[in-house]
Amino acid sequence: MTLDVPIPDAPSLRGAQPRGEYEAIDNPVDNPEDDYRREELETILASGAWGDAFAEWAAHTGLTPANFEIVLEYELIDKFDFYWDATTDEVGYRSPTLPQAARDGVDAEVVGDIDSELDTLGRVVSEMLENDYLLRDDESYGFFPDAISDNSYESRDEE
Predict the structure, then answer these.
(1) Structural domain count of the chain
(2) Is 26 within 8 Å of 97 (Cβ atoms)?
């Protein structure tokens, strides 16, 4: 099923949250000031990665337009968090879930579907960032070189 809705704006990444609370990657943080590279990821998302990943997810999601309206009503898109985990050399994510106020008036199956589809969207975005937007640095086999140019995160469409 395809979800035919306008692509919402990319989330504003707000850190710093302990990595232990993330579902995708559960690594302890020795220093809470660790660099999660949220600003760089936010730039990459706004430069095209979010739109590409959202379109890919929307083409395969089972979420209905009515259920997606619930996502928008509770501003869940902006509650996504994406961060760089240097320990695993991966983009981690935290997907939002419906708040209790939304759960009270919605069928339990719909709540499960929304939560599941939001997690899938987080995974699709994370994978697209790693596979299509972040190029590994040959010298250190990391995604982020020491010096990053201003135009290194242009949309794939601009290549």
Answers:
(1) 1
(2) no
Is residue 12 included in any domain, yes or no?
no
Alpha helical stretches, state H, the chain: 38-44, 50-60, 65-73, 100-104, 108-128
Question: Taking the alpha carbons of 119, 122, 128, 134 in that order, is the dihedral positive or negative?
Answer: negative
Shortest CA distance to 77 belongs to which of 112, 51, 100? 51
In this structure, the number of other CB atoms found within 10 A of the CB of residue 148 comes to 12
List, for residues 56-103, the tens digit of each pLDDT value: 999 999 999 999 999 999 999 999 999 888 778 889 999 999 999 889
Show the domain range for 53: 19-143
Asked if the structure places residue 33 within a domain, the reply is yes
Q: What gap in Å lies between CA 70 and CA 53, rounded to an integer?
A: 20
